[in-house]
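Human: I wish I could look at a protein chain and see how it folds. This is the protein in question:
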Amino acid sequence: MSALALTNEREQRNYPLPVHAPSLVSIAHTWKHNHVLKALPVDVWERISPHLELIELPQGTVLYEANAPIKYVYFPVNSIVSLLYMMENGDTAQTAMVGFEGMAGVWAFMGCQTSPSCAVMQISGLVFKLRASVLAYEFDHSPQATQILLRYTQTLFTQFAQTAVCNRYHSIKEQVCRWLLTTLDRQPGNNLFVTHELIARMIGVRREGVTECIGDLQRLGGISCSRGRIVVTDRPTLERHVCTCYAAVKDQTEHLVPARMN
């Protein structure tokens, strides 16, 4: 059993309901929008659903800090979470992005109580919040849940690796296109409510470089911009200028997070 798993004998058989159970009506209409939750076996879903809390969080909300205990895990619905590594001088760089395809806080069931990176809301919206101990229990006791969670974790590690390669070898324009497409894949519509400064912080480059790339993409007809918003008007334009890292991560995610296992 992991360090965060429930240890009480009664809890091992049936962990207790929260004191204030969330509305299962609202959850019933929303949980299928998150692919990891949707993939979990029915019996696991029935056990964890009373513990899920559906909340709306604004951009910039810190879900957990680096090297601090992870008390909750998060499953985005229509929002996006950035996993950020912070340098000693305060600069940040995004190591991975989590949307409705996944979850933030995989370290909670990997035998760790902390994460090497912090998790911050990149795009505001709805997320499911779940006590880490509940998910750790299911990871330890349900072979099917274990498989689902490990498969998703592999896609996350692919993001870590491809991000490192991309930041080292690919141009700023390729990185910006990768970031825009990856964000677009994780939210509905073609409107991205982001600034040049945010993109620069996420990929770890100077804002001036991002602004130049955004201008090039506008002239090519791929996007249009207004203050604090980027609209993708021609996705194929971005796809022509993106690096191979984008497809590598996308393919892994689509293959490794399956439909519900029954």
